[in-house]
Structures
1.
Amino acid sequence: MDIRIAELDNEALVNDLDDLSGILVDSVTAGAAIGFMLPLSKEEARRFWSQDIGNALSRGERILFGARLGPRLVGTVQLVAACPRNQPHRCEIAKMMVHPEMRRRGIGRMLMHAALERARDIGKTLVTLDTRSRDVALGLYSSLGFEIAGEIPDYAWDSDGQAMHATTYMFRRL
């Protein structure tokens, strides 16, 4: 399996819009806690990528990474580089997604390594993230050196709207 990780600019975002939208819809359908509720339409996913993320990329607020297997995009993560003025040393990891069919193959780890390396390159010394408490992703983040800062109960609804879950905030110094 030859996975390639790259930064995606607005042109790549447009070219990979179908793959990005598919990853998002299929991840939410599989239960991912990434801020979306079911049912999530392909059109809503396309709007998120093309408008919300496209605009953030244009403004330099986010850096988007993609994991590619051949021509197909199979995973993505974002580095939120724009933080408040009193936090120029910090950035956030957001919307870590690997297509459900491609999980447990090291793709998430590869995406995270690329994001952390880029964070160092742009002079960041602290990276934060939040994830659903007791999610399988906690193991990945811990293995990459992230430490738990705390947990907030009843933080968000699961994507199916059946129950609320806690979220765990994590950090890593670079």
2.
Amino acid sequence: MRLLYLECLALAGLTVYLVVLDLTSRSENVGMAVALTVFAALGVAAIFFVARGLGRRTRGARGPAIVIQLFTIATGGFLLQVGPLWLGVLMMVLGVLTGLLIVLPASTRALGID
């Protein structure tokens, strides 16, 4: 749950950065820039609610949490190819670690899925 909150915080930071870029840069494609910013903000809300659901031990929060980790791993793989290598490795490690913690037997018992 704490790692999901960490992911939420990192995505919130990215969203703030995107808002600053939207307001200060001269883009030819303003619609795409705003759409990306809104998408990032929706991601922050989704991760927050999933993390909160896991914190409250809601059974239905486990599936979305795993899907979020799959997206994190996929994004890390993309960054390994085109972006900063260190960030790609960090995202993949975070995604795998969080995903494993979600499916561990102790987490399964805590969520009452056992």
3.
Amino acid sequence: MIDPHSFGWLHDAVSWLLVPSLAALLAACAIALVEAGIAVGERFHGLRRLRDGGNVAQVQAIARHRLERADLLARIPPMLGLMATIIPLGPGLAALGAGDPAQLASAVTVAFDATVLGLVAGIGGLVIGKLRRRWYEETLEAMEDAMENAA
């Protein structure tokens, strides 16, 4: 049998990750809002300016960079949300075993809130990425058509 006291250091190390995970989730939600604002600006002004500039390589580089940001936003926050969901459940279940259901309720509340934050930021990143991908493809196609018609 595994001695529960021999892995106390592991529990302490993992518990330390809860606050940074929650902070990163809050930051991810803020970044999703900022990215949504940038995407709106791109859609109504930035893409037209890039298309009129005529530099396909520049548009491809900008698209790649912005799509990578959206992809990271779609993938990392849900993982952080899962991490911040599981971390408080260990102490919460231990508290239940010790007869303290109030601490379990607190841990479950933190766990569910972390899940929601991760999903909100991830959904934002997914939607922004899908829209940007379509917008940049349309822009590049329009630029290629314009170059073919000019030739």
